[in-house]
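@channel sequence for tomorrow's demo:
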Amino acid sequence: MASHLYLIVLYNQPLSHAQSYQSLVSQVDDADEVLIYDNSPVSQLDIELPGGWDYRHDATNPGLAAAYNFAVAQCVEKGIIWLTIFDQDTDVPTGFFATLKKAVVNSDATAIVPRVVMQNGTQISPFMIENGLFVLKHRQHTLAAINSGVTLNIPKLDPQPFNLKFPLDFLDYDFFKRLAQNHASIEEITPTLIQDLSLGNYREMSITRFTAFLSAEGRFVAAYYPGQMWQYRLRVFVRLIRSMLRRVQGDKLRVMARMSLKGAVD
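structure tokens (generated this afternoon):
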């Protein structure tokens, strides 16, 4: 029986082109299982899967939360203790899996998180949730991590631990905020993963994607920091000024302006 399941969530990219697939196929232990959850409108399975790998296609694209909850349910059904999540655009260094295997042997943590950087070397995970949301120093300091690279101790989680109210954006914030509320243990490990972050540049995002991101951010703040919404709106206003100076597209500036004034993007 496998003790570890690795999940890759795929969207509109052939599996063979996914950075995480290229990393896993040469490094994962044959005794472990790998699940490919494909949210694409048309299947992106363009290669024959190795033994012990499974594939699920859901053309309805229910989002990351549904994919993660499905993987958790698979672990429960098969008696698998550990689940590691990867985005398709994560470059996993040689040695990561060996380090992770050692970490889980005696770990009692609910989540194990690596260091993740963008291609320019900027660290994006782990991080403190409040630092990116508020202008003034916040009294709370909630440790969180982006989903990709996180390893979860399945017996310590609820049957459906990922919140369907945040199907994509701020799902990781919501998950780690609830872990903190439950005083769950989070362990950090040293390997560094490289992430091609789609939200790294506002100018490159579609207006639909940008609006969805800002809406999810506002809903997250309203859910967990209702008394600090004014601070969050001030932070958005500061972003608006910076974006104007960087000549971000006008439609995105208008979305930020609505959020800074009303706390919602409509």
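heads up for whoever presents: The first strand starts at residue 4 and ends at 10.
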